[in-house]
Amino acid sequence: AANRYREAARSLSNKRRAAARVLEKTVARELAPLAMQRCRFQVAFAEAEPDPGKDNGKPAPWETTTGIDQVEFLLSPNPGEDLKPLVRIASGGEISRIMLALKSVRTLDGCGKCLVFDEVDAGIGGQTADVVGQKLKRLSQKNQVICVTHLPQIASYANRHYFIEKRVEKGRTLTRITLPSTLPPSTQGTTRSRSS
User: Fold this and answer.
1) Crossing angle (nearest 10°) for helices 2-31 and 92-104
2) DSSP one-letter string for 158-190
3) Using an 8 Å Cβ cutoff, are 161 and 195 in contact?
4) Is the model's pLDDT at 183 over the cut of 70?
5) What are the two backbone dihedrals, phi and then psi, of residue 156, each rounded to the nearest 5 degrees?
6) CA dist., res. 26 & res. 33, Å (int)
7) Residue 116 per-residue DSSP state
């Protein structure tokens, strides 16, 4: 049984590695218009090898139902920098844009998900913000997309807008969400450009 598992796991690992090369190129294309054209994205594979002295025909602890691979996304946000684990080096805005790029790869995910993007507009503006808005709109055709933004270029693509306000009362931070139509007319003009 262990040998059959290892054979199947090795076949799955080879398919994953081939798919990862395609994913890297596709994500790089998606990141370019998101003001990340100079970053490098890579899928790294680590594989725990069995200890030959302990092979008793039973599955080893590293042999799981999902295979033998440990997969990690690596990122080099700027030219000349080494690839490092995405979870350790990416800022909130970079992570949101990488997530947007990954979710924009149609073969990667199904539909009917609730996707939340916060800080997707960090460090961008102008044409890049418009591209982000277009990508979010495209995703929203098959998913529910919630995006917190300060940019009107992104907010303008939303079907519904909410105003999110934080305030401190009696030493506690409270968050209030309201529809712009319930706000006084003097604040409605700025609300649409601040949230979606």
Assistant:
1) 110
2) -SS--EEEEEEETTEEEEEEE-GGGS-HHHHHH
3) yes
4) no
5) -65, -20
6) 12
7) E
Structure pTM? 0.68
Among the listed residues 20, 24, 22, 30, the one whose alpha carbon sits nearest the alpha carbon of residue 136 = 30
Task: Write out the E strands in the chain.
Answer: 40-47, 69-76, 84-85, 114-118, 144-148, 163-169, 172-178
Cα-flanking dihedrals φ and ψ of residue 16, to 5°?
A: -60, -45
Which single residue is written with the structure tokens 């712009």? 180
Query: Token digits for 108?
Result: 């990667």
* CA–CA separation, 21 and 58 (whole Å): 32
| Range in 32-46, 85-99, 179-193 the model is least confident about | 179-193
Tokens 């808005």 correspond to 133
